[in-house]
Each structure stands twice: as structure tokens, then as C-alpha cells.
Amino acid sequence: MAVILVVDDEPLQRDILKTILDDEGYETHTAASGEEALKTITKFPPDVILTDLKMEGMGGIELLVTARAENSSLTFIVMTAHGTVGSAVEAMKKGAFDYLQKPLEKENLLITVRRATEHAELLKENLQLKKELYDRFKMEGIVGRSSKMQEAMEIMTKVSGSPATVLIIGESGTGKELIARAIHYNSPRRAKPFIALNCAAIPENLFESELFGYEPGAFTGASARKIGLFEAANNGTLFLDEIGDMPLMMQSKLLRVLQDREIRRLGGKEPIRIDVRIITATNKDLVKELSKGGFREDLYYRLKVVTIQLPPLRERKEDIPELVAFFRTKYNHEFGKRIKGVDQSSLRALTEYSWPGNIRQLESVIERAVILSDHDAITLKDIKSELRTAQPSGVWDFELSEEGLNFEELEKNLLRKAMAKSNGVVAKAAKLLGMSYKTFWYRWEKISMGPASKRIADE
Description:
Number of helices: 20
Largest sheet: 5 strands, parallel
Radius of gyration: 33 Å
Helix content: 40-55%
Strand order of the largest sheet: 2-1-3-4-5
């Protein structure tokens, strides 16, 4: 049951209120002054404080201000026999939940106290959720003792407190959004919104309305005003993932926002001032995109004021045991399991694996193993199928980059290597590539590889 503190310098009023509230099942404490109330708050932290406005010494407003300076979640109801509009307004401005005029009516009092305790409960839940959120994204909670991760975390720690734009570079699955959230929740903007947008997932014709919002009638189907992501993230952080996939038209508009710090909704006439920190991420080589004209140079330099490079998991294998333990604990908790560890052969296999999907893939493997394991420890049997299916299978198991490749150059390279390996004997070179002599010779001549060595003629 909720704890109520009654503060009143009239003994009879205190006793009546305590009796009424005790009868309703509340745990009620009393104090005869503001000073005594502050000591009681420390001893028996209340959910709701019911205080008289005018008392000898510290009055109700001063008590409210002093107590809330220490604990902003305290819920106050202010009472007075000298009610005026001015005193009510002042009490509410200082943060009182409600205002009651004496003489108090029992029913009205109980309704107000019940509403106040419900409000206090919601505040507690909200604070608890925020604490869990902040704890989840604490810098100390990010797993990674490797030198490359330590270097990245050092930059994160330094940049968190500033409003600078940040560009996070790393392969898919390396945890770019986690890093962006950690920067936000360790910054002065932590109590404000963090909004993430994957630029690769938004159709080009919807980009502008998503980011800037629109007014009614701005286009067919715009029946009501919609707030865009820039406005929704005001005073907070907007995380633009896969920024390398943002259309050129939107790149110029984003650049304008970064320069002017204001936006205009579609169909709107008035500019709207915003204060949004921009964090972006990409797995593309933006420098190459600049040379190809796929990304604006002026925007690139605006975004990369601070750059954080996240290493792929294969370059930070010393972090794998700690990551495995982290995910094992996480999924033990989530699935109600009691897996105590990972046996040595499994840990060796996990450490030696190349992890093309990076941390996201490792998490998936451990999640599956925790679900399926029937033992105290994860064994090789629980993970080997996942590692085998994704293990490199030879020269053909390579990732095709976003930029594609030059097939003619690839073919030339293969032909040259085959010729070199066969010491210039065409028949042997053709066999290495699974071709007939004629096919090899035809392709050699077609792509203008020049005259073959003397030994070719001997074949």
C-alpha cells in the first residue's frame, strides 16, 4: 500500500487525516512542520505528501521546492484554508500534483489521494524504465576489450558530451546502432528522444515527408498534419543508418538542415527551428561514393566531424569469449534457462570462426544454442551446424561488394594466373579452368591478352 505523509501544524487536522487515510489502508506518517517533514521523508520515503500551505517556519511551497530538489519524483498535494487563485497557480507551477481547499471533504480528499498515488506509481515505473535503459547503454556495459574497440570507445566517451555530428563506419552486424544509442544515452540529450531511420528501407518518394512532415493538403492523401522525424527528435538525436543509400536530392536537403538548423514541413510556409543531433552510419566506402558522384562531398565533411570505425568481429577475436558469456546470460534470462557455460571445444570453434555476419550472427548462434541445449554447458553439437553452413567453402565464397566488379578484368586475371601456373602451356591452363583448349584460346584472343608464349605454339 502507498505511503502518505501528512504535514500540518494543526494537531487535530493531522490526526483526522491520518485516521481517514489509515482506514483506507494507506501507511500514513505525520509531521508538524516543513522541517520535520524533511526528516520524515528521509526515514520513510513517501509516495504522496499532503501538506498545508501556510505553516510556522517552512511553508508548504518551500517544503515542496526543497524536497523535490532532492527527489523530483515526489508527488505533492497542497491544502490551505486561505485559498486564492494566486496560491493555487503558484503551487501548481512549482510542481504540485493538485490543490485542496479546507475544510476538506472526505470523498474529494480520497479521490485526490488515490489519483496522486496512481500518478506516483506511474512516475516510479517511468523512472525504473529509464534507469534500465541508461544502464543498458552505459559505456561500461559495451563488451570489447580489444585495442580496436577500446579505441572506438575512447572516441565515443569524448564525443558523447558534445553536440558534434558523428559518422559510424562498420560492416553489417558490427553494432553501429548500439554505439549510436550509447552516445545518445550518455549525452546531455539522454532524456530526450532517440529516433532511428534506416535510409535503405525508405522509398525515395517518401523520404521528404518522413523527415520533414507535412501540412494538410500538401499532396493527395495528406488529410492531416504529420510531424516529421526531425521535429519528433527535437532536442534529442536522429540516427540515420545506411546514410550511403540516401538519395542525392535528400542529401542536399539534409545538408541545408545541418547548416540552417531549421526545417519546413511539406506544404508549410513557416520555417521551424530545431535542435537535433545527427548521428549517421554506413557500411559503404563513402570516399568511393564521392568519386562516383553518389554522395555529396560537402555533406560528407559535415557528417564526419567525428568518425568512429567499428572493427569486424574477425579482427577482435579476443572479445568473443566475453561476447559469448554476455549473450548466454541474456538468453538464459529471456528463456528461463540455466546454461552455465560453454565447453572448451565449442569456445575454440567460436573463436576460430570467421563470422561474416559479425556480432549479429554470433548472437543468433548463441541464442539458438541456449534454446536447444539440454546440458549445463553449450557443446559443439549445439553450434556446429550453424558454423558449418556459413563456413567459407572455397575460392567462390566471397562477398560481392555493393560496387560490383569488372567481370572482364576478373576473367583476364584468371586466364593470366592459369597461364602462369601452367608455365605457359595452354592445354594445362585450360584444364585448370575447366575449359577445352579451343575455348581457352578463343577467350585469350578475344580479350586481347597479346601473343602467347612460345610453349603455346608447341601444344
